[in-house]
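Chain A, query sequence.
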Amino acid sequence: MHQPAIPHLAQTDPQLAELVEAEARRQFEKIRLIPSENYVSSAVLEATGTVLTNKYSEGYPGKRYYEGQQLIDPIESLAVERAKALFGVDHANVQPYSGSPANLAIYLAFLQPGDTVMGMALPMGGHLTHGWSVSATGKWFRSVQYGVRKEDGRVDFDEVRDLARRERPKLIFCGGTAIPRTVEFDKFAEIAREVDAILVADIAHIAGLIAGGAHPSPVGYADVISTTTHKTLRGPRGAMLMSTAEYASALDKAVFPGLQGGPHNHTTAAIAVALREAATEEFRGYAHQVVANAKALAEALLERGYDLVTGGTDNHLILVDLTSKGIGGKPAAKALDRAGIELNYNTVPFDPRKPFDPSGIRLGTPAITTRGLREEQMPQVAAWMDAAIEAAQRGDEAALDRIAGEVRELLSAYPMPGWAPTP
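Chain A, predicted structure.
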């Protein structure tokens, strides 16, 4: 049953309640390897379901446009202070609705339409909002993109420097959505200073690892830091912007009134809870275990002959090129889902296939680490993945169902925050 329980939902809208329970069971029974997903704590779930959702709060603490903020102001201030303490920053804004609007606020704060921005190309591991052509950030601004070396999948900083010197961007983004190696914030900062650009570190994927000391911090290198609050940080679906004091006012004005109206107060409260949890020794151990599990899973896949972009991982994320296995990423991901292993198909650098039918799969260990799996389970996960991919190639659906049953049996021993099977 769902925890916290949802009896009123079940009574008012049993159809929706059944779907919620079915989704919870699905999350319980599958090895969830999508690197941008996780399980939040019951406390975070409770915070998102409070009466705070009833309140409208345009503005910032002490400067609201609606009355009745006596308790909302301290809730938001608590989240802000916890973010500043956890990440060691001068300023934090916890109001952005999600990661993409947070990044768009950065453009609004510092650029005019047509100004030049530089980011990692989407097919190389960057994000849509780092200036990719189909995004508003690529349509409204002049975007130049850096990539990775073909031979090892790593960023070539000589090429990044040459591009920055030639194009003179006002903003440089580092970070992305499919980067399996440590982001070298210091090298990006050196280049940004040389061309007088603002450096933005998008740490959406690795925020929890940074908070837990399992990845270097961009603080002291990046002028602005953007992050979602879910993924490795294990909070609700929201976002934050952090910065040095110099850029605080411009960012705040870009978020409100520039892009948004009232913040989602129930999400703000849940962010505050997640930040408190992330400041504990228990979370620090979790962050390091995420990386240990990813390294163990990467090694197990390498031993089975899989080609990993960059040859492995330094963080939570693994990018697999399936070309040598003779199967595309999309059919592989669908077969794995049938086998109880959830991940996503993904382009790989220099992918000759189309984005909706790419050569790779992307996976990560944040969620399974929350469930309690450790290094010793990773060879079994790799074995199931390998067996499922082979079954997909020969059309053996019975094998996929058998693997799914074995996955369910393993996971039954590992509790899931927010739901438990009815005794």
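The two ends are 9 Å apart (CA to CA). The chain has a mean pLDDT of 97.
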